[in-house]
Amino acid sequence: MASAVERTDDLVREYLIYRGFTSTLKLLDSEIKTDKEKGSRVDKIIDQLQQLIQSYDLTGLKEYWAYLDRRLFSRLEDVYRPTVNKLRTSLYRFYIIHTVQVLQNILRKTSFFFLDLRITSLKAKHYKSKNSEKKNDSDPDTQTEALSDQTDSTNQTRVCEVGGASVEQPFIKLSQEEYIEHHSSIMHCRVDCSGRRVASLDVDGVVKVWAFNPIMQTKATIMSKSPLLSLEWAAKPDRLLLLGSGVGTVKLYDTDAKKNLYEMTIDNIHPRILSLACSPSGTSFVCSAAAPAAQSGVLMEGEARVSPPVSGQLLLWDTKTVKQQLQFALEPGPVAINCTAFNHNGNLLVTGAADGMIRLFDMQRYESALSWKAHDGEVYSVEFSYDENTVFSIGEDGKFVQWNIHRSGVKESEYLLSQDAVGPFVLSGYSGYKQVQVPRGRLFAFDSEGKHVLTCSSNGGNIYRLNKADVGLESVLCLGGHKAPVVTVDWCSAMDCGICLTASMDGKIKLSTLLAQKP
Q: What burial class does residue 104 get, using C-beta atoms within 10 Å of its C-beta: 0-12 exposed, 13-18 middle, 19+ buried?
């Protein structure tokens, strides 16, 4: 096909020359040069990509790749999608490596240039010092000034040397896209297990299921008569989405068929489904049901925050049988569970509650294994660490704590976070209007190796390196891009490039693509 196009171009050229249409011939050659598809010739497309890389045109490279993605790769079958993603990652890596190598050469030449200048300057000072030595033998003040000048020069040189040293960052932000289909504050935003789709829920109860590869596109919109409070992707099959309501029901939604499969009535006495977690190893899921609240999750200025109700239940259900399997015993008494998380094989379940307690459950025996007082106030978010020997939690007291699960209540590390990362989150408007949202979704997420954590902030997500408690959190990257406070985050490493989601109170969701810098 490509050779046929090239032969056709030659025939058209010969015809235009024969007829004497020189201006049309020039226009044809100009159009061929700017043709992005290059006649579907692979070698020409590769040449164009290499030309963009060698000219350091990152914007042009991204635009050209987006064009190829839209015109060519998006028409391929889903089985080729991982290959296309690998090609994109390799292309960006090639650009970065090429750019870094060239920059290193420039810096090396620049350093030699300044070194030569410095040697020349020192020689001049040396000769000048020798010439003025005899004159200043009897003048100690002049000697002091000369020594001071020399010391200042040396100090400045050292600062330049230190400032010129480059510190390698663990991540490079390749791109940042924005999803704008929501019109109110986001409560939850989660990527599915495959890393292909995102489900997001706002305070109006609208759920959007959308894809971001190859292009950002809404796949389904779910409108519910009853208010929705929580969501979770099913592990098997990953097309199913669980939606928890404020009237004691959980809906099982098929995102491919775009319909509700069934609706489970959980508890009428405790109608608020605050948290959902699906077991990675089966079809069961846990849900937290809490008693009615006097206030919703979003408050207006002048309204007092009412403490959440104490009463609540933690239940285990099965999506196949659509029946309740058991009710967990909560000690010292029934309490609202705010957050839940399984470990990698579903044998352990960790929960954070409104009474500040963390409870660890053995899912093989269906009983409580450990529990301890973790925070002053509510526990907002809890997750297992990478090695699953510890759990991390964020509480109302503004602390981000790592706990040893083999020794109840023993802290491995503790960090103090700002209110921007913990909540309640405040969005200010005109005439003194303020909207306050208590945390509902995930407040932190780890990378694939568990060495870095993504948290909320006032204008985007912040990525920190996890260090020992005495060192503290080390900021490595600010994603930015938001004009309103970020209220929930997620980090997916299923693809070659890491995907960070940050959702804010103005309904905007930013999707940042990161490239990990391997040492």
A: exposed
